[in-house]
Each structure stands twice: as structure tokens, then as C-alpha cells.
Amino acid sequence: MSQNLLGTARCIFKRDLILAGRKPADVATPLAFFIIVTSLFPLGVGPEPDVLSKLAPGVLWVAALLASMLSLGRMFAGDHADGTLEQLALSPHPLTPLVFTKILAHWATSGLLLVVLSPLLAMQLNLPTHAMGTLVVTLLLGTPVLSLLGSVGAALTLGVRGGGVLLSLLVLPLYTPVLIFGAGAVTASASGLDTKAYFSLLGAFLLLALAFAPWATAAALRISLD
Amino acid sequence: MLQIVNLTCTRGDRALFGRLSFSVQPGELLHIQGANGSGKTTLLRTLCGLSQPADGEIRWKGTSIRQLADDYRNQLCYIGHTNGIQGDLSAAENLQFGTCVGGADSAADIAAALERVGLARAARLPAKLLSQGQKRRLALARLLVAAKPLWILDEPLTALDINFGAVMNERLASHLAAGGLVIITSHQELKVSGRTHKISLDS
């Protein structure tokens, strides 16, 4: 009996999670980066509670964005080097859903952990407690977009010398809308304003990225393998 | 069955070979020979559909492989230079993942395949502890589990010891006897009983 698409996708997801578990340093580095960057701000700006709470949404979002970019390199690099990517490209299943599974597994071991960590760091920056929920929801909607957009860049820069820098140049401009509306929602919520429009926009970004990014990544991977 | 018509491949701006035509029928092995850099790997990757030819067509049962896409990939098993083995997974996990991605049932007998390539005792070891030859054996074990008709093998005998080289020749022969197709590059002489052809890419 042959394996169906869902079964293969489950294999890939499980394998990527197992691998992340066996290389904890890869998972921990972006998280440590997130913690350190957000902790540097109170040291640099000074411990004024008002100033910090004003800065908090932007600082948290920018740090989360950079941290998630830091982890993009490992999304395909290892599989490219050891030939697993060729096997994926030669799978009888279409590459797009397989790539989507890899992105999902990558988000679960990077973006999702940033979301979990964010309330703790928000307290450190004196973000009002009533904005905490908004922060978590915006990150929950926004970090998958970062992983999805980033995957296109990661696929395009595979095997390129100095790919890391090129990757950030490619991807960071694309991240700006997510940053603007993500941080904007948290700021609005901190000052007691309505955040529904922000959520709708972030949700729309997520849907758009879900529809196009895996397909674009699969196409980019085929080019990188050629 | 597999028909190559006027195939031209380039690498960068350099033409590797031009207007190559041949066909491989069930039960046949095609041994591709050529000096280093003559385009053997490029040819194999093109036959898999990983690389696009500059010109010409590849047909499987009369239909272009571009049209067949997933259906064609379901027929082939490719073992390239890179083994497709992740060092942090055990040998058994690697083989399981490889067959799963290849579209075969994950419940297929992984242990038996590892036994047949002589890796039964290394099944639970992280693959990074395996020697180069053992990694090659592990990659080749995919052929046994996947049960695909078309095998495309890029230098499968590198790093293998003499004994396993002989085992490999037997495996190839039994695959041919069962009506399979093999396209292989190798600098060693193959001692496979069955219908074998050779082509050389040296002009």
C-alpha cells in the first residue's frame, strides 16, 4: 500500500520536531536572542516605567521579528546539504504541501515559542496587563506570516555564499507590514483603543501568505536544486 | 519504456553533451560511463526531473515526464551523491523517513531491509556515527523498501566494500529479472547478469 499525502506530511512534521529536539541549541539560540535584545532596552533607555511601556510594543515586535529571521537559515539548509531536499523534490506527492509542512514544523519550533515567551518579556518592559492578550494574539497571527514569507527567502538563498545577509535583505522589507500592524495593535490596546481592524488585517496577511508562500517556496526550491 | 530523445544538457554556459538519444526497456540496465565532468550526474538528475534539459525530451511509456510529473516520480527511486541521511536521526528513522517521502508505506519492513544491507545492529545508532560505506548502504536500503520499477543510481558503489559490492550486483540482477529498469553511473566494472548496455558521454 502506498502512503498518502497526509501520511507523508505527518512523517515530515514528526521528523522535523524530533530533529529540533535533538539539536536544542538551534531552537534555543533565537529564543535567547529574543530575551537578550528585549532585556538590553531597559538598560539602554533607562528604567523609566512610562518610557518603557511606551516602547514595549515596538521593541517586543522588532525583537520577535529579528529572532524569527535568525532561525530561517536552518529551515532548509541542513536538508539541502545532506540531500534530503532532493528526496522531497522527487517524492510522488506535490512539493507545495510538503514544503508547507516543513514551514509549519519550523514555526512550531521557533515562532510559537516566541509567542509563549512574550508575556514574560512584556512584563519586564512594563507593558500594561490589559494589552498582554493583544500582544499574544498579534504574535500568534504574525509569527506564522514571518515564517511563511521567510521560507521563500530561505529557499531562494539556499547554497548562496553569504546567504544569511542576503536573506535578511530580502525578507526584512517584506516583514514591515506585519510589524506595523502587529506593534500598532499592541499600542492601540495599551491606550485602550479598539484593535479589531488590526486583527482583521493581520488575519488577511496570514491568509495571503498561507495561499502563496508555500507555492512560491516550492518553486524556489526547485530552482535551487536545478 | 524510458525513452530519451535528442537530449542536450548544459551546465552554466558550457554544453555537456548534445543530441543524446537512447531508450531503456524493462529488464535492462544502462551503464553510463564518462570521464569526470562529462555530465553523468547532470544526465541522471535530468532523467529524474531535478534538472531541466536545454533541449530534447524524456518520455516514460510514451508520455513526456513533464506531463506525468508526480506519476513519473512515483515510478523512480534515485540515489544521488548525497545520501539523504540526517546524522541526528538513527539509521532506522532515516530509512523510515526516506521511504515515507518516497511514497511507500511507512509500515513497510524497515528492519528487514536494514538486515539485508547488514545494518541490523546499527539500526538504533545515530546515523552520524556510521562510516561512509555504512551510510551508502543505508541510502541503498531505500531501494529495497520502496519497490519502484526505475532505479537511477549515481555511483552507488563508492565507499562500499567488495562483499557488499557483490551483493549489490546480485540485487541489480534480481531487479532486472523482475522487469525493473536501472540507469547507473559507475567507474567500477559492473558484473550484473542480465541485459546491460553501456553508453559513454566522452565525445
Topology:
The complex is a heterodimer of chains A (226) and B (203).
Chain A: H1 5-22, H2 24-45, H3 49-70, H4 77-82, H5 84-89, H6 95-108, H7 111-124, H8 132-156, H9 163-190, H10 196-225
Chain B: E1 2-11, E2 14-24, E3 28-33, H1 40-48, E4 55-60, E5 63-64, H2 65-68, H3 70-73, E6 76-79, H4 91-101, H5 110-116, H6 132-146, E7 150-154, H7 162-177, E8 181-185, E9 195-200
Parallel strand pairs in B: 3-8, 3-9, 6-7, 7-8
Antiparallel strand pairs in B: 1-2, 1-4, 4-5
Number of helices of chain B: 7
Largest sheet data of chain B:
5 strands, parallel
Order of SSEs of chain B, N→C? Answer: EEEHEEHHEHHHEHEE
Domain unit count of chain B: 2
Oligomeric organization of the protein chains: heterodimer
What can you see in these coordinates?
The complex is a heterodimer of chains A (226) and B (203). Chain A has helices spanning 5-22, 24-45, 49-70, 77-82, 84-89, 95-108, 111-124, 132-156, 163-190, 196-225. Chain A is an all-alpha fold. Chain A has one domain (5-225). The model of chain A has no long low-confidence stretch (mean pLDDT 93). In chain A, helix 3 packs antiparallel against helix 7 and helix 6 (95-108) crosses helix 10. Chain B has 203 residues and is α/β, with parallel strands linked by helices. Chain B has 2 domains: 1-75 and 149-203, 3-Layer(aba) Sandwich (Rossmann fold); 86-148, no CATH class. Chain B is built from 7 helices and 9 strands, in the order E-E-E-H-E-E-H-H-E-H-H-H-E-H-E-E. In chain B, the strands form 2 sheets. Chain B has a 5-stranded parallel beta sheet, with helices on both faces. The interface between A and B is medium-sized, with 30 and 32 residues.
